[in-house]
Design goal:
The protein is an all-alpha fold and about 90 residues long. About 80% of the residues lie in helices and about 0% in strands.
C-alpha cells in the first residue's frame, strides 16, 4: 500500500502503463496471428492486408515503448521471410 502522495501517484502510473503495455502486446500478437493465418489460406489480397497491418502494429508498439525495438525488428524480419517463402506475390508491387 502506498504511504505517500508520491508513492500513490507512482503506483497509479505503474498500473496505467502496465494495462497500456498489455493492450499493445495483445494487439501485436493478434495481428501476427491473423497475418500467419491469412498466409496459410493462400489468399493474396487478405494476406497482403494482414501482413501490412502486422508490420504497422509491431512498428507502432516499438515506437510507443510497448515492446523493445529489437524484438519488433526481429518479428518483422521473420514474418517477411515467411511471406517471401509462402506467397512471394504479397511483397511484389503487382
Amino acid at each position: 500500500m502506498a504511504n505517500t502522495r508520491q508513492s500513490t501517484k507512482r503506483a497509479k502510473q505503474s498500473t496505467e502503463r502496465q494495462s497500456r503495455n498489455t493492450m499493445i502486446r495483445s494487439t501485436t500478437r493478434t495481428a501476427l496471428r491473423e497475418a500467419i493465418a491469412a498466409l496459410q489460406e493462400k489468399d493474396i489480397a487478405k494476406a497482403k492486408a494482414a501482413y501490412m497491418a502486422a508490420v504497422k502494429a509491431l512498428a507502432k508498439a516499438a515506437s510507443k515503448g510497448g515492446i523493445p525495438q529489437g524484438r519488433a525488428s526481429r518479428k518483422i524480419s521473420r514474418l517477411t521471410h515467411f511471406v517471401k517463402k509462402a506467397l512471394p506475390q504479397v511483397l511484389s508491387g503487382k
